[in-house]
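Known limitations

Structure tokens in this collection are predictions and should be treated as such. Users comparing against experimental data should check residue numbering before alignment. To illustrate the layout, the record for Chorismate mutase is reproduced below. The input appears on top and the generated tokens appear beneath it.
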Amino acid sequence: MTATATEKTGATEHHDHPDAAQGSGTPDGTGTAERAGAAERAGTTEKKGAGERTGARTTEAAGVISGARERIDALDDRIIGLIQERMAVSAVIQEARITSGGRRVNLSREMEVLGRYREALGKPGTALAMTLLELCRGRI
Ligand SMILES: O=C(O)C(=O)C[C@]1(C(=O)O)C=C[C@@H](O)C=C1
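Generated tokens:
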């Protein structure tokens, strides 16, 4: 027998209710989360279907989402690596300044950094830069 899109993804294309479309309802009335919880408690595992993992309602959409998520994971790995590199470079600057008798923090430079992120990314860019500065300050 050929598997249907629904069987392959766990998605149900002809239901409007999101939970039904993601395979959480079964004929015996047991929801996916409920069964997963029971499996967890029993120490057994229950694999989620592609539809449930991605929120997709079709096999095609599930494939697009899975592929794009792999790219996002790869990008996040690179971003995390760059942040760690930034922290190390920032530590070099702070160490040089403190060793020379100066202060760890340089507020005018922080304003420049905030401005660059705001210019590129708008208001959330400022919040992102503040988090980066928090990560980078005081790590020597
Ligand atoms: O550029 C500096 O002077 C730094 O010390 C680096 C840095 C940063 O991580 O961008 C960190 C702390 C300072 O308060 C300002 C900026």
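For this record: Residues 12 and 24 are 10 Å apart (CA to CA). The chain has seven helices and no strands. Please report discrepancies through the issue tracker.
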